[in-house]
Design goal:
The structure holds two protein chains of two kinds. Chain A contains no helices and eleven strands. In chain A, the strands form two sheets. In chain A, strands 2, 4, 5, 9, 10 and 11 form a six-stranded mixed beta sheet that branches. A five-stranded antiparallel beta sheet of chain A has the order 1-3-8-7-6, with no helix packed on it. The relative contact order of chain A is 0.35. In chain B, strands 2, 4, 5, 6, 9, 10 and 11 form a seven-stranded mixed beta sheet that branches. Chain B has a four-stranded antiparallel beta sheet with strand order 1-3-8-7, with no helix packed on it. In chain B, a hairpin with a 2-residue loop joins strand 7 and strand 8. Chain B is globular. In chain B, 35% of the residues are buried. The chains are: A mainly beta, B mainly beta. Chains A and B meet through strand 4, strand 5, strand 9 and strand 10 of A and strand 4, strand 5 and strand 10 of B.
């Protein structure tokens, strides 16, 4: 089985930087994925890591350490529109994505 | 038009009724998935299909069945709905080459009374 943990809620201020952590335990690891979900909408793909290290995509970056079973999503220059749930998901080879319970981020002005 | 279309978008039904949620896609993806989302529990995998002849159970398949009628169509059935199946259901697709990049439908909200 897989066990994925991430904080339930986080708050931050506009313009700040926030880091959302995700820890996981799995066998046959085949990638760590981040999704964004605004209230009332479907999740949308943000980023993924297969190898250790940092992947940068504009204001968003994602980091992976496979040996530690650890990832984080870093959001810079926060904007109000970044208020959403952020879902960490693990892909096990030959199966489907399994999601964590999600982190609800609230950005205030 | 949406690439991944779910019908119905909303349904209220009674305990014991049979319900089918349908999903169709125009993305040409081989892989299709059904997830349910509950507050505080995140997205949980019900069933997935890697091609028309392939059906696999997910984390929470009890009480559900699926049918992959064509590459583009994947239906989820609740044979005898019960109140704890009240949830938001999402269909998703992915390419074989990028199995973790899912494209979701808009969701089907099901209420079982």
């Amino acid at each position: 089985g897989q066990n994925i943990d991430q904080p339930t809620e986080m708050t931050a201020t506009e313009g700040a930087i926030v880091q959302i952590n995700c820890t996981y335990q799995t066998s046959g690891f085949n990638g760590l994925f981040w999704y964004q979900q605004h209230a009332g909408e479907a999740p949308t793909f943000l980023s993924y890591n297969v190898l250790d290290g940092l992947e940068e995509k504009g204001r968003f970056s994602s980091f992976l350490s496979r040996s530690k079973g650890y990832s984080y999503l870093l959001l810079k220059e926060l904007q109000m529109k970044d208020s959403a749930s952020y879902l960490c998901a693990v892909h096990q080879a030959g199966t489907a994505l399994i999601f964590g319970k999600g982190t609800t981020l609230s950005v205030s002005s | 038009d949406a690439d991944v279309t779910q019908t119905p978008r909303n349904r209220i039904t009674k305990t014991g009724k049979r319900i089918m949620l349908e999903c169709s896609q125009t993305k040409g993806h081989d892989r299709m998935y059904w997830y349910r989302q509950d507050p505080g529990l995140g997205l949980r995998l019900i069933y997935y299909s890697f091609d028309v002849k392939d059906i696999n159970k997910g984390e929470i398949s009890d009480g559900y069945s699926v049918s992959r009628q064509a590459q583009a169509k994947f239906s989820l059935s609740l044979e005898s709905a019960i109140p704890n199946q009240t949830a938001l259901y999402f269909c998703a697709t992915s390419e074989v080459a990028y199995p973790g990049e899912l494209f979701f439908g808009e969701g089907s909200r099901l209420t079982v009374l």
